[in-house]
Amino acid sequence: MSDLLAGIAQNNFVIVGRAGIDFFTDAGVAAEDAERVTVGLGGSSANIGAGICKLGGKAALVTRVSDDSVGSYCVGQLKKYGVETHHVTPVGGEYRNSLAFYESRVEGHRNVIYRNGAADFQMSEADVEAVEYSSYGALITAGTVFAAEPSRSATFRAFELAKAAGLPIIFDIDYRPYSWPSPQVAEEVLSRAGALSDMIVGNDEEFGFMAGDISKGLAKARELVATSASVVIYKMGEKGAITLAGGEEIRTGIYPAEALKPTGAGDSFMAGLMAGLAAGHPLREAVLRGSACASIVVAKPGCAPAMPNTEQLEEFLAAHPGPTEV
After folding, report:
1. Could you tell me the CA-to-CA distances from 4 to 39, 175, 180, 182 in Å, in that order?
2. Which domains occur in the chain, in start order?
3. Is the pTM of this model over 0.85?
4. What is the dihedral angle through the alpha carbons of 214, 218, 221, 223, rounded to the nearest 10 degrees?
């Protein structure tokens, strides 16, 4: 685990995965009643990068965007948040950036993501081979990047190159069924990615999916930490999380919040976790800081725009009566 923490401590991450554009309604407004929507940066990997930068770290994104105004918007927003875009490459033709349209409400929440002909799936091995991995401390990716070719093979190539440069691999399972050709392919590919990773983060349903049954999810997490990963974080929503590392199982609660919508929590958790570990906080405290970031994001509209900076996170932790007991 020392190599993993040493890499994270550099607080300089290369992130492989998508950037997208989000449209979201005003608070409490259903899609069919919306007369206006707000636009923001989205996409799991882009969100994680924005969150890390807002918390004082450095991040570079490796992906493809559409060669149009939406792609330009995504690049502009990444730069606004401080994410390095040198390896964000436009692709022309009929490929388009992913687009999410979601409601800023919890009850009856609907979230539609358009991923047909997604530009980010066109990321190639040449794209990831152009990265100087030794310039970074760790590689982060989310599972959506593996859902189609050539992005899938490119990301496994990035894993190979990162490992050769001594970087630990941090993997957010982030299983989205609509992106995959079949559950069988997803289970096989995500399990392969998990076996190559030093840290794995996922929820109980995602680990259950990899195990073939949700009731076997925790056993799968324990198997991964026993055979390959140094740290596995098994998230359970309102029930908190179990962090498996060094033969220990650390159970942590959550910071209850008046949720406005459910989106963005996982990306913000990852950003807060990385920032906490980079700042030298013990693993348990870093997980709790990730949980606090998740609570902040679900209480505000948007994903990347809602992520806290360091001052906002510290204010939340000082004022909030939490976390819950487990």
Report:
1. 36, 23, 30, 32
2. 2-319 (3.40.1190.20)
3. yes
4. -100
